[in-house]
Amino acid sequence: MPQSLPAPLARARAYAIDVCTPAGPPVPLGGRSRRRWVRKLPFVVAALFTALLLPLSANVLTNEFGLGFGLALSLAVAQAVPLLVAVRRPLLAWAIAFAASVAAAVAVLSEPVNRDWPWPWPPPTVIGLLLLMLAVGMRERRPTLVAVWLATGVAGAVLRGVSPDRSSSGVWVTLFVVGGMLMLLAGALRERGDARRALAEQETISEAERARRTLLEERTRIARELHDVVAHHMSVITVQADSAPYRLAGLPEEAREEFGTIAATARESLTEMRRLLGVLRSEDASGAGGGAERAPQPGVARIPQLVEGTVRSGLPVELAMPDPLPEAVPQTVDLSAYRIVQEALANVVRHAPGAATRVSVSVDDAGTGLMVLVVNAAAADRDARPVETGGTGHGLVGMRERVRLVGGTLDTGPLPDGGFRVAARLPFTTAPDADAEDSVSP
């Protein structure tokens, strides 16, 4: 088996591989921008400078440095065309152009000294390498930028030392300094853009998680309230089944056993529901909040009290309800109607303080459902501060979940005059869950 490299050589090899590895996929420079002209700009700049530097580099290498036309054209192509590649792969483009620039400088060493042109980089080469270093700074990581910067400076210093008789202008120092500044600036802008994009993505994820958590919390709260409704019915079934043999004379033994089985099943179901509710309840439900969990659930009959409390808070509310109240309203519908009115009024207090509001609760024409309507006008004073910042639920999310629970329909939306409308129909007979989901408006 081949022996492993010594630790220093292994670290140097890993560093070289890391430096030479491009950062991320070959996405065009500016390709993530929302502005179309920003996405097109790198392609336009690359094409423009390629068309400008290609003939200029070939002319300089041929007429000023004395290289043959074929060699000069090949080297000019290798220096200028990578600008087109740099739009997607800046590091690869710089490596090709840098190697071609060094090769051109080495080829010029065989020619007579020309003091009229800077050495070792002619002006077209300097312009091309600066553009490529700027592109590298916009894409690559800091170790790669340092390696590119040092390679440019070392190559210029070595070539300058090989032929000190040529032009003594500090063009290689200029490329080293200006190129480093361009990469530093581009790298800082890139890191700032990456940080802003990461923050925007995190905010999007947080908003989605917040909406999901809100929905789950509302469903959990509805499940706890639903437990009280169902538990009441199960308790009634248990009591009726247990007392049937004593209330009904002459029952056969089989009927007595059947009633006993019904009572036992009801008690078992009630026990399972309480166990499930223990999972849904918060940890402090048995503490200060336990009394609220055991309190009777409100219904349509308590809507006048709710409206009265809202009026005392400074919100003008008109209430229209049937007298007498409808009988035999299912408890889930009764509770849902109260919660919808409660949440709608809380939203008015928060978002349109002082707005005239009208609450209407009625039975539909067919007598098969309850109609709940809450309409508010625009805020009386748009600059007024909300008189209440809390809420009993989670706004429209809770309304939609309650309407879906009973298989009803919900219609919400702004009004032309700046107000808002909440209209719900809660059928007395619950529709299948799939139908209910389709009927709820977003």
TrEMBL record:
Segments traversing the membrane: 41-61, 67-86, 91-109, 121-138, 145-163, 169-189
Annotated catalysed reactions: ATP + protein L-histidine = ADP + protein N-phospho-L-histidine
Domain of life from the UniProt record: Bacteria
Family annotation (InterPro entries): HATPase_C_sf, HATPase_dom, Sensor_HK_TwoCompSys, Sig_transdc_His_kin_sub3_dim/P
E.C. no: 2.7.13.3
Enzyme class name: transferase
Alphabetical list of CDD domains matching this protein: HATPase_UhpB-NarQ-NarX-like (cd16917)
Coiled-coil ranges per UniProt: 198-225
Sample GO molecular function, one term: protein dimerization activity
Pfam families: HATPase_c (PF02518), HisKA_3 (PF07730)
One Gene Ontology CC term in the entry: membrane
SUPFAM superfamilies on file: ATPase domain of HSP90 chaperone/DNA topoisomerase II/histidine kinase (SSF55874)
Domain Signal transduction histidine kinase subgroup 3 dimerisation and phosphoacceptor per the UniProt entry, residue ranges: 218-283
UniProt keywords, alphabetically: ATP-binding, Coiled coil, Kinase, Membrane, Nucleotide-binding, Phosphoprotein, Transferase, Transmembrane, Transmembrane helix, Two-component regulatory system
Protein name from the UniProt record: histidine kinase
